[in-house]
Amino acid sequence: MKFFSIKNFGNQALISLKRFPLTLLSALIGVVTLVYFIEFDNDIKNDIFYINIILSSALGIPFYIGCSVFTFRYQLSAFKKLGLYAIITGIIILMFWSLPNTENTFVITKPYIRYGILSAIVHLLVSFVPYLSKNQMNGFWNYNRLLFLRLLLSALFALVLFAGIAFALGALKLLFGIKFEFDFFLQIFVVLVGLFMTWFFVAGLPTEFESLEAQRGHPKGLKVFGQYILIPLLILYLVILYVYGGTIIYTWNWPKGIVTYLISCVSCIGIFTTLVVFPYAQNDGSPWLRKFSDVFYFLLVPLIVLLFFAIGLRISDYGLTIKRYAILALGIWISFITVYFIFQRGKIKMVPMSMVIILFLIAWGPINIFYVNGTVQVKRLIEILENNKLMSNGKIVNEVHWEVSDSFKLKAHSLFTNDSILTDSLQLEIRSILDYLDDHHGFEYLASLYSQNIDSMIHLSAVNDKYFNEAKVYMQSMGFRYMYKGDRWYEREYSFRSPQTDLLQISGYDYLIDVSTYTIRSGKEINSFEHSDEEYTLVYHNEGKEELLLKSPTQTIKFDVELLKKDLFAEYRASNFEEVSKLKLTIKGESDRMEAKIEFKSVGFEESRNDTTLFSFYGNLFLRDKN
């Protein structure tokens, strides 16, 4: 029995460092960056830059592990090894630069989806790179078993170590009153999981690959897990799906969309189960497992047909989205694996290898997920426009033209030029398409439809607005309204505010009270207060004329909102948000006994198809008694 030795522990750590230097360097860079990010999060202006460093470092860990294992397994020369490391480093750098770099970057979903796909590819590569040209399925299985168990052991050690340190720090607080911030615990967790766990994991990676092929003593625990837990559960799932399929045939009802996810999950669980029991199924002492492995893929065939039928209906009815494309690609992969194992049994490394190919084609192939989905969505949009005669010579009819003001605000001389042509449902469909493009693809597919370069104007006007809505501008440029709420349309929200100041001049008035509301409707009481033994109530009124009324039992003061709105929109109607002088946001009213004014700090208007009305404000009400 070997006892723990600090010397042996240090030697193993040093050996791992020499064997996986870039892996541990990536882990160190990621950990240091994340620790710094946690410590100075409130002072960091560009969070995304640090997040991208962390993500790139995380990608480097499995990438360099796979490279080190590959070069060790095939004994590459120093020159080839250096070239391979250089290629991998270049890929990581390219991925880093492809990620969004500022909070104003548009279309952040697409690069992060590609990052996630590349990360999945790299992790899968680690699972089979030592056996690319080796037909050693038993060695391949044992190698992946070691990877999996080492990963679990590394995670367990890291979590136990963190728990021990956390309890020690807690004891210091209880006994000596030494306080530690939550961020400090989080930083310790990051160091242990990011660096210690990675170092411990690579220290246990195999060096004798030939011995893995010769190893026949497989763990009984995995056999029990596969035979008595995974397979019974899998049979239960298969029975449920077969009963559902029979119900569809009997009642002739269309399958529910969720069945595509269930079939995909059950298929993947089944493939994983056949991988777990693979060496036992090859053993003559386990005929039941062999029979299950043979029959399972035949049982998948009817379910695969049902999967393609269900996903085909969804695509036909609602179009091709990223989720549906992913399910379709997964269905193609499951079909390939099913056919492959029906006719070619035993070469289980085909599972991760084929998945890598599918993932690569999804992200970077000629019919990749972004190109196909973007093209389909734009085609749907063009069909709507052409069917309603809103396209002429490849351009949008009655396009709204924009200009960028000196304050980098988008302004248009006229809006909603095509608003009355389409029904609400079609406008909602256009908005849905534009929102989808905004989230996943960007608008380069639409550039040819416009006579102006909207993208360049958006980037100029978004300099000071990180929440800029591109889809809204593109839809407004088509001459349509963008927003829809409840049972009524409203297109634009106009917001005006006065410069913020800590000083408030109250000369000429006797009293001051804050007034505000965010849910205006006609007759709504906004604020109430008592003055000179009378109760005053500020009420919004919008019947014939839009007003704010300050009412008491003996008098009423009217504030003309219509006049305020007219003056503001005469100058600022083409802009959604403006900072204006306090004078422009002031309205006055009086009665026989009292003078009053409201200075708005901010005021918002909502434009519907028929009118533009007040919907929120925040400000100060000033009062002065005349007597």
Commentary on this structure:
By secondary structure, the protein is an alpha+beta fold. It is built from 19 helices and 16 strands. The strands form five sheets. Strands 7, 8, 13, 14, 15 and 16 form a six-stranded mixed β-sheet that branches. A four-stranded antiparallel β-sheet has the order 9-10-11-12. β14 and β15 form a beta hairpin. The longest helix has 40 residues.
Helix content: 55-70%
Q: What general form does the structure show?
A: globular
Proportion of residues in extended strands? 5-15%
How many helices? The count is: 19
Uncertain ranges: 485-489
- Class by SSE composition: alpha+beta
What does this entry show, briefly?
The protein is an alpha+beta fold.
Describe the structure using short key phrases.
four-stranded antiparallel beta sheet, alpha+beta, globular, 16 strands, 627 residues
Task: Give the SSE layout.
Blueprint: H1 6-19, H2 21-39, H3 47-73, H4 78-98, H5 109-128, H6 137-176, H7 182-203, H8 209-214, H9 220-251, H10 258-276, H11 278-281, H12 287-318, H13 322-343, H14 350-364, H15 369-387, E1 391-392, E2 395-396, E3 402-404, E4 410-412, H16 424-440, H17 454-461, H18 470-477, E5 484-485, E6 488-489, E7 492-497, E8 511-517, E9 525-531, E10 534-543, E11 545-551, E12 556-560, H19 561-572, E13 577-579, E14 586-590, E15 594-607, E16 612-625
Helix pairs in contact: 1-7, 2-3, 2-7, 3-4, 3-5, 5-14, 6-7, 9-10, 9-12, 10-12, 10-13, 12-13, 13-14, 15-16, 16-18
